[in-house]
Amino acid sequence: MNKSAYLDYILDQTQKILSIDSPTGFTKNVAEYVMREYKSLGYSPKQTVKGGILCEIGEGAYSKDALCLEAHVDTLGGMISQITDSGRLILTPLGGLEPNNTETENCKIYTRTGKIYSGTMQMKNASVHVNNKYRSTAREFDTMEVVVDEKVNSKEDVHLLDIRVGDIVCFDPRTVLTESGYLKSRFLDDKVSVGILLGFAKYVKEENIKLPRKVYIYFTVFEEVGHGGSGSIPSDVTDIISVDLGCVGEGLTCTEYQVSICAKDSVGPYHYDIVTGLIEAAQNGNVDYAVDIYPHYASDVDSALTAGHEVRHGLIGPGVYATHGYERSHKDAILNTFLLLTEYLK
After folding, report:
1. Tens-digit pLDDT profile for residues 250-282
2. Does residue 140 have an active-site annotation?
3. Ordered domains of the chain (ranges, CATH)
């Protein structure tokens, strides 16, 4: 296996997917792109009712013992909740978007008539030379606003642009791949793992891998609001592994160069046998990994269990710093996540 070739493909696909705006509830364009890529690899993906993607990539001997690998294409974003009398836009978050992480960020406003405008998220009265409370003002969605890059001075001016309450606001991902191998961007959660699962499907096809069981890849579109993986799980699935993110921070062992294996999150412990199997696969394949507990985390697999699916569950992902902000990982973590999948599914 040419590891570097698959890594290059994953990084290229991840950057392309990051360039497609897709906050939760606004994922049609990215789903269409991913569907096309799977078809180009020789697969037959199907779209779910909610707009997700389900694709079978391996037929094993155990027809009633299938594995589902999940990742999500939806990201954080905003929706217009109010248009002010001065022509500014007040947002409500889509998912866990933090207002202090959006200050001075460029964004796009997508109208329902198909028009797209640019703007910038600022705190109200944003000039330091004018506002003597600039430093002390808490950055909240009701103290911040989108300044539209058009000559608008009133609510009526904004309406003439076809901008309305309920329109989607998408933030610039600011994607950078450094020469030293760091991938920096908004929305690595979870588009980097979408790229990894594309790479895994490419590996299975090109290397003519005979998987030991049937494997589905499932891309969900509502993970950031908690119900992405709650439905459309095929009836023969007994195990689900969410391929999402590993957190990097104080009190944790994972780094930006490792694959994380999660033992427990805010919902509870992951299935003991799945976690143990992932650890053994990492050790057998000399994959650089870490095991951690994430008290402020929930995954698509949690929503599947909450919805009543009788499955065993696991969670892995590349180590990512500054999750839900301007995130950073390294190509080593991305490769280690890919290699863990190949080793686990030998």
Report:
1. 999 999 999 999 999 999 999 999 999 999 999
2. no
3. 3-75+187-344 (3.40.630.10), 77-171 (2.40.30.40)
